[in-house]
Amino acid sequence: MSETVIHAENLTKRFGDFVAANALTLEVYKGEIFGFLGANGAGKTTAMRMFCGLSIPTSGKATIAGYDVYRQTDLIKKNIGYMSQKFSLYEDLTVLENIRFFGGIYELSNAQLKSKSDELITQLGLQHEAKKLVSGLPLGWKQKLSFSVALLHQPKIVFLDEPTGGVDPVTRRQFWDLIYDAADKGVTIFVTTHYMDEAEYCNRISIMVDGKIEALDSPGNLKKHFQVDSMHEVFYQLARGAKRGE
Predict the structure, then answer these.
(1) Distance between CA 184 and CA 162 in Å, rounded?
(2) I need a labelling partner for 14 at 20 to 30 A (CA). Which of 127, 171, 185, 199 fits?
(3) What's the CA dihedral at 43, 47, 52, 53 to 10 degrees?
(4) Domain count, the chain
């Protein structure tokens, strides 16, 4: 993991007098599973929007997949995938129609679309559901399909925003198998989650508190540094320290 695919240096976003993301500095590497943690309101969404080329920073600098967040947002969008817990698929389209729709947005050729569609449906075991509406799929299958669709155009980075919220533990673990498989193929996974056990699955994690990155390291090193046994305790100590102004 030597090739840097996300580089941020003092990246800041202000809304008037409010600093939503404060001088974020980090590097994320090719094929890395990078966890981006923080409580609601910590600034995770603001940061992710800047990384995805959807929001222009107030100051600082960053490159995503080699492209500048100020001047090359269109190229950033072509080289990343994105999946949200809240919206990723069209419920009133079939499985196959969703795959072809997003493949078209990613500018895949007709031949690529057919090949990718067949491959994806077979890989997920959705042959019997291919012509059924996505609204009829269980939530876990929707999330697996959403993630696979986000990989259709072979992006360098996939941003996952709370991808397993509301999914049962067994399906969550299966979803993480898909993440491991993508990372093994060189795709960088940038994931936000509020499940502390999922933080343990990441190569490294950062923890945001009140708009700042207060910790960044591997789960093992962070637990060792804070002398605790779980990431939940690390998170608790950082949040408690922030309230005390430490």
Answers:
(1) 21
(2) 199
(3) 110
(4) 1
Bridge partners, residue 24, by sequence = 11
Which residues constitute the domain of residue 68? 4-89+142-243
Report yes or no on 100 lying in a domain: no
For residue 69, the surrounding DSSP H or E stretch is none
pLDDT band at 78 (very low <50, low <70, confident <90, very high): very high
- On the question of pLDDT at 39 being above 90, the answer is no
Which residue's structure tokens are 């994806």? 120
Q: Is the pLDDT of residue 59 over 60?
A: yes
State the amino acid at position 158 in one-letter form: V
Considering the domain boundaries, does residue 122 fall inside one? no
Place of tokens 């090193």: 221
Closest CA to 94 of 86, 102, 84, 83: 102
Contacts of 83 (CB under 8 A, 6+ apart): 143, 146, 147, 149, 150, 158, 159, 160, 161, 163
**In terms of Cα–Cα distance, which of 107, 196, 190, 210 is closest to 152?**
107
111 belongs to a structural domain = no
Identify which of 18-32, 85-99, 102-116, 155-169 has the greatest average pLDDT.
18-32
DSSP 54: S
Q: What angle do CA 113, 118, 122 make, to 5 degrees?
A: 145
The CATH number given to whatever domain includes residue 204 is: 3.40.50.300
> Does a structural domain hold residue 217?
yes
Burial of 174 (0-12, 13-18, 19+ CB in 10 A): middle
